[in-house]
Amino acid sequence: MSSVLPNGWEMVVGLEIHAQLATHSKIFSSAATAYGAEPNTQACLVDLGFPGVLPVLNRQAVGFAIKFGLAVGASITDRSVFARKNYFYPDLPKGYQISQYELPIVAKGQLVVTFEDGSQKTIGITRAHLEEDAGKSLHEGFKGQSGIDLNRAGTPLLEIVSEPDMRSAAEAVAYLKKVHTLVRYLEICDGNMQEGSFRCDANVSVRKVGQSAFGTRCEIKNVNSFRYVEKAINYEALRQIEVIEGGGTIVQETRLYDAQKDETRSMRSKEDANDYRYFPDPDLLPVAIDPSWIEDVRASLPELPDAKAARFQQEFELSAYDALVLTASRELASFYEQVVDGVGRAGAKLAANWVMGDFLGFLNRDGLELAQAPVNAQALAGLINRIQDQTISGKLAKTVFESMWSTQKSADVIIDEQGLRQVTDSSAIEAAIDAVMTANPKQLADFRSGKDKLFGFFVGQVMKATGGKANPEMLNDLLKQKLSGQ
Amino acid sequence: MSLHTKSIAELSKGLANKEFSSVELTEHVLNRIQTHQPSLNAYVTVTRDRALADAKRADERRAAGESLPLLGVPIAQKDIFCTDGILTTCSSKMLANFVAPYDATVVAKLSAAGTVLTGKTNMDEFAMGSSNETSYYGPVANPWDIARVPGGSSGGSAAAVAARLVPAATATDTGGSIRQPAAFVGVSGIKPTYGRVSRYGMIAFASSLDQAGVLAPSALDCAYLLEAMSGFDPNDSTSVAQPVPNYVESLSQASLKGVRVGILKEFFAEGLDPAIGALVHEAMDVMKAQGATLVDVSCPSLPLSVPTYYVVAPAECSSNLSRFDGVRFGHRCKDPKDLVDLYKRSRAEGFGAEVKRRILTGTYVLSAGYYDAYYLKAQRVRRLIANDFAKAFESVDMLLSPTAPTTAFKIGTKHEDPVTMYLNDIYTIGANLAGLPALSIPCGFANGLPAGVQLIGSHFSESALLSAAHVYQRETNFHLQVPAAFS
C-alpha cells in the first residue's frame, strides 16, 4: 500500500477491537442487553455490583467466542481463565472489570486482507478474549456532577487483539473492515459503530524504513468510524515523525482522537497508567471447553467471507476485488446471488456491476440499509434481463433504474409506460440515419473527407432522433455502412 | 427443661406435638435476647416483628399439616448474609445504612425450611478478625467470661448460641471464623466443603476461601441446619452440583468403629496451650474407646498455612471490597470536592483499621513486580498444602487437632498486635486453603474456659465428620454446658 508518510519512514499499527456480542443477556447476569433503554433500567444487582452478588458466565457468549476463534483459524484454549482488572471508576460498579488475562479463550489466529488492487496481506491475531463492558458516565446536564448509566455494564465484549502487522492506515482500515465483516457473518455482533457495538483502539508507532525494532507506541482510544480510524492513525504517525524529527522523543501514552479538529491529544501517560493488579477471578471457575462443543460450533459455521469470495470469483468469474466488495456482508452477498439467480450465470458479471455500481450508490446516497432498499433483488434482475435481451440499452437502463428506485415499479412497467423499448428494427434505424444524413450535409462531407471524429456526432444525432432507444450495436453497424456510402 | 436449653431435635418434636407454639418459643427467645443483649452485644439487629410474623406463619403451616423439621425454629443470621428489607452491615460503618434488596441463598433456603429469623448477629468487620473486636458495633462478650472475646469473626453467632439466646445461628468461615469461636464459647460449629453451601448473598471477604456454615450446641443441631442450607445454586458458579446427603438421618447410624483418625503432628507442636493439649488427648481416648483407630499423620506444608493465607485472603479482599466506593450504596463522605476525594474519604471513613490493613496488604501483593513473589508463590504453597491433605486422606478417614492454640483471651489484649492475633487461626486455616470440611466441638474446660477439638475431612465428607462428632457427644456432655449467668 502507498504511504502518506515522508520518505524513509514507516508506521507500525496494531488494533484492539472491541466487539459487543449479540447475546440476549449480559455476560455474567440475566439482565437484557438491548441498546437504547432508559438509563439504569437494564442493570440488575449483579451489574450494579451489589454486596454479595456473584457472576455466572453466559454460555452463549462463550459459544460466540469459539465461533470467532474458529473463523480466524485460531486455537480455542481448552481451559481459559477469567481475571479481574482492578481500577476505580464510577461506571465500573465492582471496582474491577472481569476480563481474561493470561489464558484468553482464543489464541493465535489470522486473517487475510484483500486490497483494492487485488493484493493481499495476512494480519496476525494475537488473541481474542471475553470481558464485560463498563457502564457510561454522562458528564453533561448534571450540574457539577456526573450521571452514571449502568445499562451497558456487563454487556459481553470480545476483545480482538492484532499483531503489529499493519504498515499503513489503509491496511489498518482494511483489516478492521474484514473483522467487521466477519463478526456480522458469524452473527455474533451487530457491528453498529454509532452505538458502540464495534469499537477500536489503535496502537501506532513509527520507525525508519529498514529498522527492525519498533518505535515507542501510542494508543489511540475509541475511534468510532472507519474514516476516523484512517484519519486518526495518519494524524498520529505524522505527529510522531514531527516530534522525532524535531529532536523530541515519543512518550508511551494513551491519546484521544478528536474528530472535529482531526487531531489526537494526550489522555494519560504511562506513568499515570493504572496498575491493574490482574489476578484470576475466584468467583468463576476456569472455562473448560469440551472438544465436542468446538466441533458442534465448527459444524454450525456459515460460509465465511473468504470462502464465499473465492467461490464468487470462480463461479461468477469476478475479479478478486469485486468478489470482496460483494461479500462484504452476508446480506449483500445473498442479494447478489439472488440477482444472479434471476439473470442466469451469463449475466453474473453484469449483475455484479449493477449491484456494486448503481445499487450500492443509491443505497449510500440515501443512507439506507440493504433491507430498506426500494429495489429488491428480483426487481434488479428484471431490469438486467431487459438489458440482456436488448429491450433497452445499458444507458437507458440507468434511467429506468432511477424510476424503479423512486416508484418501486418493475422495470417492465416503466419501460412500457415510458415507451423506452429499444428499437431493433433495422429499417427504422436506417430511416433515422438517412434523415440525419440529409439534415447535416456539411458534417457528412467533412466526415467523408477524413474527419473520423464526427462519427460520434452522428451517433448522438441518430440516438436523439430515436429518443435514445436505438440499439447501440445496430446503430453503430448501420451508421458505419451508411456513412461510408455503402 | 426450659425452652432455651432444648436441642433442635427436641424443639422440632415439641412443635410437632403442640407442646408449645413457635410464637411462644420465639417470644421466649426474643425476651432472652433482649435481656442479654446489653452484656453480650451478640446482635447488630434484632428483627422482633419479623420473627413474630415468621413464627405465626410457621404455626399456621404446622396447623395446616406441614411437618418440616425446622418449621418454627428460631435462628439468627450472621450479619454478613443479605436479608431482603433488613439492615445488612457486615459490622462495618461502610454498610451501617445498607438495607439489602434481596435474600442470600442461605437466608432464602432457611426461610423456605420454615425457620424464624430473630436477627442479625455481630461479627468482625467484613469477617476480618479472630476476636470480634473489629466490629463497628463494638466487641461481643464471651458468655463464659464477659471480659473475654468470643473469638471471630462469627463472634456474635457463637456468643448467642453459647448463651442459649437462640438454638442455632449461621456463620461463615474464611480462615477459622466458625471453628475458633465455637471452641472459645464451647459450642459446635461446622464449615462444610468449599462449594457445599452457596455464597450468593454472602458479602465476600476472600471468595476462594469463604464458606457458610452453622454454629449450634451439638453436631446433631448443626446437621439440621446444614442440610437445609446446602446444595447447588445456579447463582454461585463455585457451588457444587452434588446431591445433599440426609445429614440428620445419617447420624442415627453414627459409629466410630474402624474409623481411622489421623493425629496431625504439626498441630501439637510449640505454641499450643498444654491444658488444651491434654483435653484434646482425652478426646482422642474417648474416640479410641468408641472404636476409632488413631494414626499419627504429618502434613509438612501445613505450618506455611498462616503466611499463605495472609497473602491470598488480603489479595482477594482488596479486590472484593473495591465496590464499597461511596457511589451506589453504603457510606459516602460529606461534600466530596471531586471524584477522588469521594473515593478516598468515603473509604477512609467507612472502613476500620483491620480492613484497611488487609486491603493495603492485598493491594501490595497483587502489584506489578510483587505478584509473582507473593500471590503466585502463595498459590503454589496452597497447592502443596492441598496435596499434603490429599495424601493424608489416602491413609486416614479424618484428621484431628486442637481447634485453637489458646482459650478465649481478654478483650483488648491482642487487638494491637495483628500477627499474634493471626496465629490464633494456625490450626483452622489449612482446611480453608484446601477447601475441606472441618468442624469444632467442645472437649472440656481449660482453666474454666471452653476448649475445642477440630476434625477435618476429605471433600464432601460432612456426614462422616458429623457422625464422629455425634458419637463423641453421645459419650460426653461438654456441649450441653451452659454458662451459669445464662442457664
Can you offer a commentary on this structure?
The complex is a heterodimer of chains A (486) and B (487). Chain A is of the alpha+beta class and 486 residues long. Chain A folds into three domains: 14-206 and 272-297, no CATH class; 303-418, no CATH class; 426-483, Arc Repressor Mutant, subunit A (Orthogonal Bundle), CATH 1.10.10. Chain A contains 15 helices and 16 strands. Chain A has helices at 59-71, 169-185, 226-245, 291-300, 305-316, 320-326, 330-343, 348-366, 377-388, 394-407, 411-418, 426-439, 441-448, 454-465, 472-483; strands at 9-20, 75-76, 79-80, 82-86, 96-100, 106-114, 120-132, 136-138, 147-149, 156-162, 198-208, 218-223, 253-258, 263-269, 279-280, 287-288. In chain A, helix 3 (226-245) links the parallel strand 12 (218-223) and strand 13. The model of chain A has no long low-confidence stretch (mean pLDDT 92). Chain B is an alpha/beta fold and 487 residues long. Chain B has a domain at 3-259 and 473-486: Amidase signature (AS) enzymes, CATH 3.90.1300. Chain B has 16 helices and eleven strands. Chain B has helices at 8-16, 22-40, 48-63, 105-112, 155-162, 179-185, 219-229, 247-251, 274-289, 305-320, 339-350, 353-366, 372-395, 418-423, 429-434, 462-475; strands at residues 43-46, 74-78, 116-121, 169-173, 188-191, 211-216, 260-264, 293-297, 398-402, 438-446, 449-457. In chain B, the strands form two sheets. In chain B, strands 4-6-5-10-11-9-7-8 form an eight-stranded mixed beta sheet, sandwiched between helices. Chain B has a three-stranded mixed beta sheet with strand order 1-3-2. In chain B, strand 7 (260-264), helix 9 (274-289) and strand 8 form a beta-alpha-beta unit. In chain B, helix 2 runs antiparallel to helix 3 and helix 7 runs antiparallel to helix 16. Chain B is globular. The mean pLDDT of chain B is 97. The A-B interface holds A 45, 48-57, 84, 86, 88, 90, 93-96, 146, 148, 275, 277-279, 282-285 and B 81-82, 88, 90, 95, 98, 100-102, 104, 199-204, 206-208, 234-238, 315-316, 318-319, 321-325, 327-330, 339, 343, 363, 366-368, 371, 375.
